[in-house]
Amino acid sequence: MSTQFPKPKDQFIFIINNYDIILGVLLERKKEDSNEAEMMREQLNKKILDFVEEMLYPHFGAMISFVKECESLVERNDTETLKKYEMRVGDLIRNFNLNWRRALEQVSRDIMASFTNFKNGNNIQQIALTQFVQYYHKFQKMVSQPPFKNNPLRSELINLHQLMVEVKKYKNNF
Question: Which pLDDT belongs to residue 92?
C-alpha cells in the first residue's frame, strides 16, 4: 500500500506509522519478547533507519556521500584516488557551515510532524540527530586525513562540542 505514495519519504512514514500501530497491538495481546513482536520491532527499526537516511540526505547528502566514498579509500590507503576529492572539501565545509542549523531545524520539524505517535516521532528524531552527529564526526575525521589535512578551510570546521550543544536543543524530555 505504501507504493501509492509518490515520494519515498511518504512511503516510509506510512510504513513506520503502520508498523508502530501493529507493534502496539501486538504488545497489548502478547508478551513483549514474543517472536511476532520481535519481528515487527526489527522491521520497524530497519524502516526507521532507512527513513532517517532519506530525511538527512536532502540537507547533508554531499557530506554523507563524501564520507561514504572516502571511508573505503582511507581504509585501503588509496591516497591517489583521495586526491580527486580534495577540491570538494572546501565547498563541503563552507556549505555545511552556512546551512547546518537551518537544515537541522527542518529535519527535526519534518520528523515530528510526520508521526502520529509523539513518542515514536521523538525516538525517530533522536535517531536522526545521532546519525547526523555520527556523519559529521566521520567527516571531521576524514578531512584530518591526507591529502585533506592541509586544506586551509579545515580550521573553519564547526567544533563537535558546539554541534552537540545545538543538537541537544532538540532533545525532548517527557
Answer: 95
Nearest one of 159, 123, 120 to 131, comparing CA atoms: 123
Separation CA 152–CA 161 (nearest Å): 21
Q: Which amino acid is at 166?
A: E
Question: Who's near 48: CB < 8 A, 6+ residues apart?
Answer: 16, 123, 124, 127
pTM for the complete prediction?
0.90
Give pLDDT tens digits for 85-132: 988 999 999 999 999 999 999 999 999 999 988 899 999 999 999 999
3-state secondary structure of 115: coil
Positive/negative CA dihedral, 148, 150, 156, 158: positive
Total residues belonging to the chain: 174
For the stretch 35-59, pLDDT in tens is 888 899 999 999 999 999 999 999 9
Q: Which long-range contacts (CB under 8 A, 24 or more apart) does 148-154 make?
A: 148/82, 148/85, 148/86, 148/89, 151/86, 151/89, 151/90, 151/93, 153/89, 153/90, 153/93, 153/94, 154/89, 154/93
The 3-state DSSP class for residue 144 equals: coil
